[in-house]
Amino acid sequence: MAEDDHGLAARLARLAGERLIELRASTSTSDPKALGAAGDEAAHALLGAALAQERSDDPVLSEHGISGPERSPGGRVWIVDPLDGTREFSEPGRADWAVHVALVEKHEVIAAAVALPAQGAVLSTGDPPEPPAGGSGRPRIAVSRSRPPEFVRDIAEDVGAELVPMGSAGAKIAAVVLGEVDAYLHDGGQYEWDSAAPVGVARATGLHTSRLDGSDLVYGRADPWLPDLLVCRGELAEPLLDALSRTRPEGSR
């Protein structure tokens, strides 16, 4: 039986993650930037070659280049981030980095996988995790460990949440999927490859995903820039969106 798109996404994310783990273990360098660049290059090459062989009719949009046939509006396109969290990958012992593989059609993520190689996990739309149980304490919001945005501090204060610093966007959304935190909010812009795969898995798990104004996240556009997003447990969507409507400056909506 031919491998379906869900299975392919999961297998390729796992293979790229295994390659990154091998590279991380075998590379002896005191230059984190060199290790990160090597990881980006190796995972990008693996995913590009595999998709060219397995889905030669589909275009590929990667953080590190475009390949395959020309993209058409609303058509199938693989959106991948070979190494989400290059900085975290380059730091010994850090596990909050990921590999993203997503397939988009008609501007929706229809298959996706997020590998968390240093955590030994692959999250997939083909076999999504059970929805995380509701927390009994204060809501937990994932934020950047190096530059948490001020507006998220305001939102946390509004809804009585605590902030949990962690690395890449994929790791943050995966933490929501796994119930390790309850929400992730981002403003200031990302690209589609930063969130397509983890948002696809989050949706398959039954979580809320949207822009910060509550509108739909739309993928596979001509311009891959995505201004903002919210991923959270369903029961937190209304209070978070309400707080956002009061807290965010009018010009940022």
TrEMBL record:
- Region annotation (Disordered) maps to 124-146
Lineage, opening ranks: Bacteria, Bacillati, Actinomycetota, Actinomycetes, Pseudonocardiales
Q: Which PROSITE patterns match?
A: IMP_1
Cofactor(s) this protein cannot do without: Mg(2+)
The UniProt entry, under CDD domains, shows: CysQ (cd01638)
**Which organism is this entry from?**
Saccharopolyspora hirsuta
Q: What does the UniProt keyword field contain?
A: Magnesium, Metal-binding
Pfam (any one): Inositol_P
Q: What is this protein called?
A: 3'(2'),5-bisphosphonucleoside 3'(2')-phosphohydrolase
For Mg(2+), which residues are the binding ones?
Answer: 63, 81, 83-84, 194
A single GO molecular function term of this UniProt record: metal ion binding
